[in-house]
């Protein structure tokens, strides 16, 4: 049966249902997605490597299983793409960086292995910012593959560092993708490209086989067409892994039906995020989205993050860990082959960070965790814009000061203060939840970004953040939002 | 280096200055490494000025 255009924008559940109803076979579906990814992926600089032969082999095996009614779950027969920091046995894994352009691993990342066991079919590696942007980067072109281009407007950035993953899902080149986040790298491309992205709790998904940027902050997570899809993928990829020293040893079962009643959920938010910090062009979309959230009947409470130096902590931790992780690259001088001059300088400079400063950052990080424990005692979920502006233009530098169009989330921090001895608790600031991306990542909290509108023809998104290992709660809220709106169904012209 | 041709000169005269300005991104710091080190130093100074309760342990867990 011919695969029509709507199929490329179907959810995982819809695709699996169609496969089981024999509307098309796993091989037909895989070939169709392969053709589309190979043809249109380069248009957005989204494709790092097509895996045609491997994918068709996998698809045939899945088809065989399905003919024998050996069903493995909703991901069976569904193609996907993997950010090019995940190792695939015998295939090139570039980490988005020229020095690693010919790198090959002889093993699969745990996430890749688990998805294969579930019958999902890997069609390609997706582009990324070089080394996941660990040294900092100035331009979207900080990649072996060029700047990630946004399918909604190719003069705009797709976001990073999971650039190709965001573009590929938005343009219907893959039904879902696996990305990663250290500080913003799933949420940002999800927001800019109008797809749903989930950053799991730190340690829930194995990092084995994924490039390490920051050992204490890296998380692997799905980027999909819906919150439900994110839940289904997370169920497969989560779980204990002895190969990952940071594995939390916990599984995840997607069970939104057992989440509490909506009206008992307490949502923390701050009006300043939506009415002052958000770019004026985005505010009408956010206002309407907030109306939808209020219509759930949840209890909305105003909240602000305490005054802590989130930017300094994030900067020190990522810089120290990232430069240490790439010590060999830097000492050999091959770091100079990277595309972005700021990234090269940042990686070199990171080697200068001493133990004293790193450990101080990690002690302040403990206070960040305590701050969230305090806030999330009387509040269940935090709600804020995923990004405060639409996708920036490709030519714009990304390191403009906070409050201007191209500011990156890690640069939007409240002004630093020093608490006195009699006031050990950080004081709430007037800065709302503006530092939620760096702060939430420091604390290892899960977050879900859902598209919630358009501004100037470009997607904007909401993020939900909750306590560790409560992904079902944010998936329920995201899913409810997507039952009442259709922003997640909107598509760019491809 | 070749002298510009009349065609080259005509092209630059035709293009409006504003368009040329838009095509040119803002200048990056002349000393990128120095700027990166300064940023690290600023982060360090901010952290050093921030008092933490003496019992606060680093957010690192060692598992034997």
The succession of helices and strands of chain A, N to C, reads: HHEHEHEEEHEHEEHEHHEHHHHEHEEH
Number of helices of chain A: 15
Structural class of chain B: mainly alpha
Instruction: Give the strand line-up of the largest sheet of chain A.
Output: 1-3-2-6-8-7-12-13-11-9-10
* Whole-angstrom Rg of chain A: 21 Å
Number of H/I helices of chain B: 3
Poorly predicted parts of chain B = 11-24
Question: What percentage of the residues of chain A does DSSP assign to strands (E)?
Answer: 5-15%
Q: Level of helix content of chain A?
A: 25-40%
Largest sheet data of chain A: 11 strands, mixed
Average pLDDT confidence of chain A is 94
Tell how many strands the DSSP assignment of chain A holds: 13
What is the β-strand count of chain B? 0
Low-confidence stretches of chain A: 402-424
Overall mean pLDDT of chain B: 73
By secondary-structure content and strand pairing, the structural class of chain A works out as alpha/beta
Précis, in short:
The complex is a heterodimer of chains A (494) and B (64). Chain A is of the alpha/beta class.
Descriptive report:
The complex is a heterodimer of chains A (494) and B (64). Chain A is of the alpha/beta class. In chain A, helix 4 (110-117) links the parallel strand 2 and strand 3. Helix content of chain A is 35%, strand content 14%. Chain A has an 11-stranded mixed β-sheet, sandwiched between helices. The two termini of chain A are 22 Å apart. Chain B has 64 residues and is mainly α. Chain B has helices at residues 6-14, 17-23, 32-49. The radius of gyration of chain B is 26 Å and the shape is elongated.
């Amino acid at each position: 049966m011919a695969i029509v255009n709507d199929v490329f924008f179907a959810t995982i559940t819809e695709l699996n249902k169609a496969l089981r109803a024999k509307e098309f076979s796993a091989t037909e579906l895989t070939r169709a997605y392969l053709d589309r990814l190979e043809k249109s992926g380069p248009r957005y600089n989204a494709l790092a490597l097509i895996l045609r032969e491997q994918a068709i082999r996998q698809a045939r095996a899945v088809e065989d299983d399905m003919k024998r009614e050996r069903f493995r779950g909703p991901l069976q027969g569904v193609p996907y793409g993997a950010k090019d920091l995940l190792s695939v046995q015998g295939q090139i894994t570039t980490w988005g960086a020229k020095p690693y352009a010919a790198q090959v691993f002889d093993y699969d990342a745990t996430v890749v292995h688990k998805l294969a066991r579930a019958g999902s079919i890997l069609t390609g590696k997706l582009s990324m910012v070089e080394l996941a942007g660990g040294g900092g980067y100035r331009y979207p072109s900080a990649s072996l593959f060029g700047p990630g281009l946004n399918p909604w407007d190719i003069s705009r950035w797709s976001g990073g560092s999971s650039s190709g993953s965001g573009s590929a899902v938005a343009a219907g080149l893959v039904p879902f993708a696996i990305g990663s986040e250290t500080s913003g790298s799933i949420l940002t491309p999800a927001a800019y490209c109008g797809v749903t992205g989930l950053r799991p709790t730190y340690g829930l998904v194995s990092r084995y086989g994924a490039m390490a940027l920051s050992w204490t902050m890296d998380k692997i997570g799905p980027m999909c067409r819906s919150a439900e899809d994110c839940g289904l993928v997370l169920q497969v990829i989560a779980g204990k892994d002895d190969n990952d020293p940071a594995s939390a040893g916990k599984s995840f079962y997607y069970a939104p039906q057992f989440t509490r009643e909506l009206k008992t959920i307490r949502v923390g938010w701050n009006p300043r995020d939506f009415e002052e910090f958000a770019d004026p062009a985005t505010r009408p979309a956010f206002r309407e989205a907030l109306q939808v959230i209020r219509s759930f009947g949840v209890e909305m409470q105003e909240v602000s993050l305490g005054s802590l130096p989130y930017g300094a902590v994030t900067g020190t931790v990522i810089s120290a860990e990232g430069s240490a992780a790439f010590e060999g690259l830097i000492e050999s001088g091959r770091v100079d082959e990277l595309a972005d001059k700021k990234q090269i300088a940042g990686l070199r400079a990171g080697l200068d960070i001493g133990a004293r400063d790193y450990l101080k950052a990690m002690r302040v990080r403990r206070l960040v965790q305590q701050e969230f424990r305090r806030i999330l005692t009387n509040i269940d979920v935090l709600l804020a814009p995923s990004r405060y502006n639409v996708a920036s233009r490709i030519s714009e530098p990304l390191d403009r000061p906070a409050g201007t169009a191209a500011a990156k989330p890690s640069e939007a921090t409240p002004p630093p203060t020093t608490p006195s001895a009699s006031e050990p608790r950080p004081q709430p600031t007037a800065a709302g939840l503006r530092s939620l991306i760096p702060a939430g990542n420091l604390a290892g909290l899960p977050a879900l970004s859902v598209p919630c509108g358009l501004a100037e023809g470009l997607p904007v998104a909401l993020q939900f953040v909750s306590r560790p290992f409560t992904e079902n709660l944010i998936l329920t809220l995201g899913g409810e939002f997507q039952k009442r709106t259709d922003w997640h169904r909107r598509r760019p012209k491809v | 280096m070749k002298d510009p041709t009349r065609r080259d000169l005509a092209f630059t005269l035709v293009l409006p200055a504003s368009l040329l300005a838009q095509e040119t991104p803002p200048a990056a710091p002349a000393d990128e490494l120095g700027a990166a080190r300064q940023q690290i130093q600023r982060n360090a100074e901010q952290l050093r000025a921030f008092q933490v309760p003496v019992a606060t342990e680093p957010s690192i867990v060692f598992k034997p």
